[in-house]
Amino acid sequence: MTDTRLILVTTSPRAEAKRIAHALVEERLAACVNLIGGVHSVYRWNETVETADEVLLLIKTREAKVDAVRTRVHELHSYEVPEFLVLDVADGSSAYLAWIESCVR
For residue 78, which phi and psi values (nearest 5 degrees)? Predict the structure, then answer.
């Protein structure tokens, strides 16, 4: 297992996704953030089934930065309860994992 983490966050609209992605990379909290458009979400909110077109952020960072990423996402996000899921990266290209480490200090 590595200390690399993949964080999933959804946003709407795309401008918000770009703003969050740029802030995380510029502040060295993430090495890379992929924005995946065309996500259609169905979820329960306030006892009602809702739908939304969203952008999925794939945030690559290190374990030591997860709390700082969480704080920053909550500061920048418009949702009352933004999605924030952290996945452990078990393995990967050693060169790519080293690059993430070098970008996130």
Answer: -85, -15
d(CA 37, CA 31): 20
Q: Which residues of 1-83 form beta strands (DSSP E)?
A: 4-11, 32-45, 48-62
For residue 11, give the nearest of 67, 54, 66 by alpha carbon: 54
Structure confidence at residue 73 as a pLDDT band (50, 70, 90): very high
Q: Which fold has domain 4-103?
A: Alpha-Beta Plaits (3.30.70)
SS3 state at 4: strand
Q: Which tens digits make up the pLDDT trace of 76-87?
A: 999 999 999 999
Phi-psi region of 38 (alpha: psi -120 to 50; beta: other; left: phi over 0): left
Domain spans of the chain? 4-103
Taking all residues of the chain, what is their mean pLDDT, rounded to a whole number? 97
